[in-house]
Amino acid sequence: MKRTTTPLCLVLAPLMSVSAAIASAQESDEAVPFTLEITVTGFDGRDAVDTRTHQMQLIIDKPSPTQLRQGREIAVGDEYRNVGTNVSCRARTHAPGYLVWCTFEQSSLIPGAGVPAFNTLHLVSEVVARAGETQELGTVDVGAGKRWTVAVTLHRRD
Asked: N or C: which end of the chain has fewer CB within 10 A?
């Protein structure tokens, strides 16, 4: 019985081509930047009375979070406190879209309090979102029919 052999390069070449194509597609997906839009809306009853939008660039599957810091330092005795908006987000591929993880903090000085006093909204949450889709991270009820809602929208930038 005669045995035929196929050169190893003829067997491996198609497999290597498929592997290279998959790796190339994964690399191109990972390198596609997104704009993450964070919308904070204040409600008095059913009426939206204040809306603030923050945008940041985000690379999917990047291990370290993208951060946005905006505000000012307020003297409190011998120390300073950061007052404003602090956002830290990252996202990773997660069927059927992307798992978006965010830490959001917004603080403000309470005017006329006599001593430094602050309002602070702090939210840590994650949601699954598709490109172009808005997902609510959370809502905080601050009493007297007033609440704050934080939502995120992923916009793919090609």
From this structure: N
